[in-house]
Amino acid sequence: MLLSQERNLVVEYGRKMLEAGLTTGTGGNLSILNRSKGLMAISPSGLNYLDATAGDIVLMDLEGNIHDSKRKPSSEAGFHIALYKKRPAINAVVHTHSVYATTVACLNMELPAVHYLVGFAGKKVPLAPYATFGTPELAENVVNTIEDYNAVLLANHGLITVGQAIQNAFDAAEELELIARIYIQALSVGKPVIVPEDEMERVIDKFSTYGQAGGKED
């Protein structure tokens, strides 16, 4: 099977999204790009992650053409393609409708550095303006907003994370959901204190070397 490893990983991480409470039903989507072959493996439209098999995962090139696939791709394939074109160093995209991150997005707020783990995204998580799902306008808003961050909130919609590998993008989605929850809870009590920008620069630098092969500080 063409891109069997990538297809199996999309199935695996789709189920992990459900298990981690990062989405429900058929919501959200994820993809992995094999740059050497010029093909993206992306979750199919409208299929429950628990029912998906590797053969259901759709292969597309970065011009939007479908290869070796029996199903329709996610309706959000456009912003996956746009992100891969804009960011040559990323090979995975995860899009969630996780509750707290989406709550922040529905308030049309960025997620600031209320906790140093925002460093998974950068110094903050920026907010892309609202556009109808699955449209070129949404893809344009995403790529115009994300810049060099590893995550972006979609106004009144959800969260996107990117990474060199699917594990990186998924970990970022999990951690940022935690930070979004902390932020919402802190706002309900008072005014959150934001980690200074120079400290976030140090944190991001430490993230690049922490652990066995780079990772987060506990």
From TrEMBL:
Source domain of life: Bacteria
SUPFAM superfamilies, per the entry: AraD/HMP-PK domain-like
Q: Answer whether the UniProt record assigns the keyword Metal-binding to this protein.
A: yes
- Keywords (A to Z) from UniProt: Lyase, Metal-binding
Q: Name the Gene Ontology molecular function terms of this record.
A: L-fuculose-phosphate aldolase activity; metal ion binding
Q: Which biological processes are named by the entry's GO terms?
A: pentose catabolic process
* Stored Gene3D superfamilies: Class II aldolase/adducin N-terminal domain (3.40.225.10)
What's its EC?
Answer: 4.1.2.17
What InterPro entries is this protein classified in? Aldolase_class_II_sugar_metab (IPR050197), Aldolase_II/adducin_N (IPR001303), Aldolase_II/adducin_N_sf (IPR036409)
A single GO CC term for this protein reads: cytosol
What positions does the domain Class II aldolase/adducin N-terminal occupy?
A: 8-184
* Major enzyme class: lyase
* Protein name, per record: L-fuculose phosphate aldolase
Record organism: Maridesulfovibrio hydrothermalis AM13 = DSM 14728
What gene name does this entry carry? fucA
